[in-house]
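FIELD: query
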Amino acid sequence: MRVTFLGTSGAVPTTERNPSALFVNRDGDKLLFDCGEGTQRQMMRFGTGFAVDHVFVTHTHGDHVLGIPGLLQTFDFNDREEPLAIHAPAGTRGTIEDLVSVTGDTPSFPVRITQVSAGDTVLDGDGYEVRAIRTQHRCQSVGYAVVEDDRKGRFDREKAEEQLGIEPGPKYSKLHRGEPVEHEGRTVQPEEVVGPDRPGRTLVYTGDTRPTDAVVEASEDADLLVHDATFADDWAERARTTAHATGREAGEVAQEADAKRLALTHISTRYGGNPRPILDDAREAFDGEAFVPDDGRRIDVPFPDE
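FIELD: result
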């Protein structure tokens, strides 16, 4: 699972930060979360490619959706034929439809718009799901959690070969699939050579939000939490009135959820090129790894047992 931060600014872009967009490559499946203006250029600049089949919109404020028309036009110019799904909060279909047709042209490829609510499984992928989670902003909004299935336990080849005398071959595959095999007059059960299931990875992307219990619950043991951290703590009142979060509040969410890593995004332009106050506040509240990603930063999300 590779994450590329395409846009980490707040409502207004800066020379260093684009509006909100997060690109996730999950074992070859390309997922785009939010699409602020200029996202298609960021995708070219940082080499993610355009092979996106799903766009997940957290809410329809301009800094999260104004890149949709440009992205669709870029797809058109590239002779795209594959369908595109745009997922957005319930009640926002009309806004997304307007963005799709704003130039007066109809895309040359199918565009499917789905409306989602907190608790929905938005995408049932191969070995993972994308789930909508409840957030709190000034409009209809959701966050998203990418949750992988548990993986099979480790196969103990040494025990199978040296202790049980089973040579490498089809029996290994059957045992790893959870099927017993007959060997030298007895039945070998899978649990004799296969360890317990291993957890998959969890990535949570909040979009714009106040701290919520729902985000804490969705982020329990998350490998990466990408949380709104628009302000430092000295602007906490502004965060409350605009329905955003501070770095400290994001850190408290990550701490309560026992997340492993915390990425602080949606950085207000008032911090210019120095988001350190936001980061310092988050690190005071969170014992794990917290960081403010620059646009273009790419990180790999390892499995929990790695």
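FIELD: remark
The chain has a mean pLDDT of 95.
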